Amino acid sequence: MSQSYGNPTRTGVYLDFLNQSIDTRYDLSNPSAAPSRYDSEATEIESSLNAINRIRSKSRGRGGHLPHLINAFGTLGDGSTSNCLLTGQGEGFFIPSYLKGSVYIQRLQKEYEAKNVSQKNNSSTHSSLAGSLSKSTSSTNLNARMAPSHRGMTYDLIEKVPSYEYEPLPPLPSKWNNHDKQAALEVLSDGLELKLSTQKPERDREIESCAIRANHPMPSQCGLYYFEVSILARKREESTIGIGFSSKKVPLTRPPGWEPESWAYHGDDGDSFCSQTSGKGYGPSYCANDVIGCGVNFKTKSAFFTKNGIHLGTAFKDLKGEFYPSVGMKKSGEHIRVNFGQTPFIYDIDGMMEREKILIEHEVNAVSTDKVAPPLRETELTQALVLQFLKHDGYVESAREFAKEVYFEKKALSLNPETILPDYDIKEEEDTSHRQRIRSAILDGDIDAALRYTNLYFPQILKDNEKVYFRLRCRKFVEMIRKAAELQNSNQENGTKKCHKYDTDWYDDIINHQMEIDGNDPLSQTYGLLERDDTSKDLSEHEHLLNETIKYGTELSAEFRDDPRKEVRQALEDAFALMAYQEPLNATGVAYLLDPSGRVAVAEELNSAILQSLGKSSSSFLELIYQQTTVLLEGLREQGGSAAAFLNINDYSKPKPNMGSRR
């Protein structure tokens, strides 16, 4: 039976903060500091988080910066993905329903999509630009190179790669391995069906069983792995099929479960076999039309089986090693089909996954925090973190309203009417409104205004932070392409677009004249291509914008032409690759580069640089907690077999669906 655990009941404005997105474009003209009492509480929190900064420093040495992540008060994406194949069944990417929304599947999908984009760029013959810009093997995109979003806008974790490098994840089993089987076994069509030939080769007639393994082992990083096998033989007679898993070195000439490092559930007698020829009574026998499921829980190091959607109990314990799904057959004509998650399962494995998560939540909640500093109650600690976050990010009016709400709530709950509560004095900070104005300009896509304000209010920032300057320049180029594409779409929808010779090939016209990042063929030489009608006196607004985009791209290319950094070259390639598409806003694999969420990453990196230049922390305390938790969970996942595999921090940082009714 599933349960849900909501957050403690909140009231008034505080609840609104948890339920609603903060408008990051709101121009706060009155800068301030946090209330005096909360200054002292924030100091206590800061002392308890100093260790986090030290860990962040150590993590940089291991491979880069910790990612800036989404805050708990913005509109969060759930990180979930559809339970469907993205391409063909055997080789394509699919998401088993019980892994939907897990960190493992998010990262795996990101790797898959990045690989596809890289392959498309490398093999594209669409234009000379695509060929010239696809030399790098890096799969990281422009937005992924930027510090990920964490304030106020939807920016799903599945849409970006953290700034530190991960080892490639092991993929999910997706089909039977045609090169890891006995010859008498025939792998059919999509690689999911398997049949034992009625005429065995001479060399296979004396073997005890014909077995096969899947193409990949079960990944321990997913926490729980499950697959099902359907028995397709026509006759409902005794089955000599064994279903289970084994290591790579187990011979395939004996039934699964009979050899060391091999475990299986057999259909003829219903026994389970744990690395030996003598079985143990486990469940009912099975035959034609039955569906047998096999699951491994890497946290508990145990395995179980199901029959026709019924859980049969734990079959094996204390499992160690790397396991491949495996099936063995004895009788000619036996026929099965496996489901590795490409289609819905018979057994409710989704429910089992949820129950595992709830058990882990209970374990976490049972840990005492009495000795954890600062010694504040949950409500006070949460209020202090939220107020410090609002102060840090410059949401002045929101901080004022929140502070008032907290004050009056405490006053209403005070048992002693004579108790003197601290006043909430809102101080002003000159830089706050400036940072908000810059942020607002970037979030609106007006990079020119952001550059202008930055040079006006903080003239040294871009000189001292070349990386931030480069990303602003790249983002401007992306915004120009976005605006041109939107204008083109608008013209088509309104029926006002003129039907000239090159109207459907304007991207091709540019690309065919090579927008090379080495500057050998400047784009400025292509302006004449845009004159599509000799009788036209003026270029259309769209053509003018495209003309300006080409000019700016040429300048950008020339400015960073000699930069040796791999990430700079890759970012330029990603940005220029947008020009290879006639409709980049709808182009699979690159459309996300134009998504407005990419602005948030740029805005936050610039904001962090400004804060650091002012001697302030680039991250709020709430973000530091979020980052530390993320790193802790990731470290545990890398070890394999950890409870962390079942947890996704985004599940706990987004508002609960029923919170709006709690008043």
UniProtKB/TrEMBL annotation:
Residues 121-143 have a biased composition (Low complexity). SMART domains: CRA (SM00757), CTLH (SM00668), SPRY (SM00449). It comes from the Eukaryota. PROSITE patterns: B302_SPRY, CTLH, LISH. Residues 154-345 form the B30.2/SPRY domain. Pfam families: CTLH, SPRY. Residues 431-488 form the CTLH domain. InterPro entries: B30.2/SPRY, B30.2/SPRY_sf, ConA-like_dom_sf, CRA_dom, CTLH/CRA, CTLH_C, LisH, SPRY_dom. Residues 115-145 are annotated as: Disordered. Involved in the proteasome-dependent degradation of fructose-1,6-bisphosphatase. PANTHER family: RAN BINDING PROTEIN 9-RELATED. This is Putative spry domain-containing protein.
